[in-house]
Amino acid sequence: MRSKLHGAGAVAAATALAVVVAGSWFGYRQLAGPSCSGQIELSLAAAPEIAPAVRGAADQWVADGAAVGDTCIAVNVSAAEPVDVAAAVASKHGATLAGVGQASGTAVTPDVWVPDSSTWLVRLKSGGATALAPANGASIARSPVVVALPEPVASRIGWPDKEIRWTDLLGQVTSSKPLRAGIVEPTQDAAGLSGLLSLTAAASATGAAGSPKAQEAMVGALRALATNRSSLRQDLLARFPRSTDPTAIANGLGAAALSEEDVIAYNNTKPPIPLAALYMKPDPIALDYPFAVLPGIEPTKASAARVLFEVLRTSSFKNRLAAQALRAPDGNWGDGFKAPQGAPSPANGGASAVPPSGQGGATDLDPKAIQTATTTWSVATQSGRMLCVVDVSGSMKKPVATANGASREQVTVAAASQGLGLFDDSWSIGLWTFSTNLNGSQDYREVIGIKPLSSNRGALQQGLASIRPSDGDTGLYDTMLAAYRKVQQDWEPGKVNSIVLFTDGKNDDANGITQKALLDQLKKLRDEEQPVQVIIIGIGTEVSRAELKSITDVTGGGSFVTTDPSKIGEIFLQAIALRPPAPR
After folding, report:
1. pTM to 2 decimals?
2. Given a cut of 90, is residue 216 above it in pLDDT?
3. Are 115 and 86 a contacting pair, CB within 8 Å?
4. Which residues are registered as beta bridge partners of 558?
5. Is 112 exposed, middle or buried (0-12, 13-18, 19+ CB in 10 A)?
6. Is 491 helix (H, G, I), strand (E, B) or coil?
7. Average predicted confidence (pLDDT) for the chain
8. How far apart are CA 349 and CA 343, in angstroms?
9. Residue 182 in contact with residue 239, Cβ under 8 Å?
10. How many C-beta atoms surround the C-beta of residue 216 within 10 A?
11. Which residue from 44, 183, 544, 546 lies 20 to 30 Å from 235 (Cα-Cα)?
12. 357 neighbors 363 (Cβ within 8 angstroms)
């Protein structure tokens, strides 16, 4: 999260500028004097580093006069952390963003939002904010994402003469004597996410997709970064060495993915050891500052927003951006901009230039890659206590056409086994199976008790490998109630206590409790002080979404259904990433 807040400003002036409707675009003409019959206030929230430039341009526009018909326009520009606005937008539109948390009670959604990256729009769209089209924001500025290193450290690895690739950095951070790399939480920071995407792509290139070698490299990189992660950008910057003493350099932060603007701003403070900006190959996703008009605003405000966008694409605005160490959308810069040493020229392509499509923004981003990166990070870097409950009813024997004929059970076990590799030893995990009459008249059986992975990992792997389908039916309700009681019984503070249950059918235990009885019991057991998060993953076409949702609506958590069992690994990651962060 950025912490370089430059203040929030309400801009309200008002003389007059007429906005004339012409198709879907709007021209304007100056009027001689104030002749407004009313006023509309357009609210705009901008990332803190670009807010002064936007505010200055809006001030000038309003001072010259801005109106729709005979109604004056005032523009209220506030500096707002993108993650805070994203949380508010997600709350309003019913979206889920891994690692973002709840919106603060005072957070409101603006009419126009200028976050630092289109990745926020893509994540909101993927998370369920279907009314928010990810391509509705064209870029008004640009800042390449770089890897920042203290200059002495950068010199040792070949800066500024050597081209450095992400595979080189991966080797540095996962070696026996690793470079101390850090990151701002990538689920809350766009530059951190850009760096994470590039580093995990480099890890994936070490072997076939999903192979043990590739996963080992990826998990190693994630945990190396997590050791020095921070939710506050200013806190991370403070970890860079503040002395030329060799010991201070060795013990300080050695590398972090930041924006070019961050490096320029840091070096402008004249630190004892400046930061070098490494423009890595392949180019990471740059910050592109989309101008996003949020859905649901009044037509007159939308009209005013379209004209303001035109104001923010002028050459004079490029000079305002330069004063904030930002580039124009095409990668060029205005008067006074001082590029860091080694920055490639926009004319020659590279990190400062726009993508090959020439547009940038959300249309050039891969929603699936972003979702995978954020969910994998959330799983690999959090700590929790979990009971994994796996359906072994007879229907789990059915083959999965999209998984080369492997059974539903085999696909489920493979997903759980692969997921196990992402959890570090701070997790405590147990394993149950369930069907009907699996253990005498009992529908469930404990395979492995809930214990720390530091002593339980091998047993869990063996337990998963031993799972075989039975000939029974699906004793879902009795199993869910027993699992909830078990996790609640030994509830552990400081961790997310959860149940993850896999099933391919509806409850069909004639001798078990009813749905109403289950829900009544769960309501009585639920304790806000000791919550148990329930995640249910439905597999195939025989599950009932309504049945699963009725349970998680009471307990908290979420239900996921995939009609293609081969996708269960992706769903598993998304589900585990539902860990509820602290409210914002």
Report:
1. 0.76
2. no
3. yes
4. 535
5. buried
6. coil
7. 84
8. 11
9. yes
10. 15
11. 44
12. yes
